[in-house]
Amino acid sequence: MSNEILNNDQRLMDVFCNALSVSETMINDDLEYNSIQQWDSTAHMALVAQLEAEFDIMMDIDDIIDMSSVGKCKEILKKYNVEF
């Protein structure tokens, strides 16, 4: 695994922790939108904004709506050339 991939995993983890105000122990690929109180619609938009800033991308509205879990987020980010 390259350092860039490890770095992107950590960057994604940091964004989720910051946007949702949760610890790293709560973040895994299976964590889903609305499965925890902290990941509501308001936090989802903050998360999107932070992802766009961190990875220097502009997500399509369909991708924002489709981002239903951490794992799905990784799939979507791959479309924007972010490797995991």
Describe the structure.
With 84 residues, the protein is mainly α. It has one domain: Non-ribosomal Peptide Synthetase Peptidyl Carrier Protein, Chain A, CATH 1.10.1200.10. Helices cover 58% and strands 0% of the residues. It has four helices and no strands. α1 runs antiparallel to α2. The model has no long low-confidence stretch (mean pLDDT 95).
What is the ordering of alpha helices and beta strands?
HHHH
Total number of β-strand segments? 0
The termini sit apart by 9 Å
CATH class: Mainly Alpha
Helix content: 55-70%
What's the total helix number? 4
**CATH architecture call:** Orthogonal Bundle
Question: What is the overall shape?
Answer: globular
Q: Identify the CATH homologous superfamily.
A: ACP-like
Instruction: Give the structural class.
Output: mainly alpha
Beta-strand percentage? under 5%
Largest sheet: none
* Poorly predicted ranges: none
Tally of domains? 1
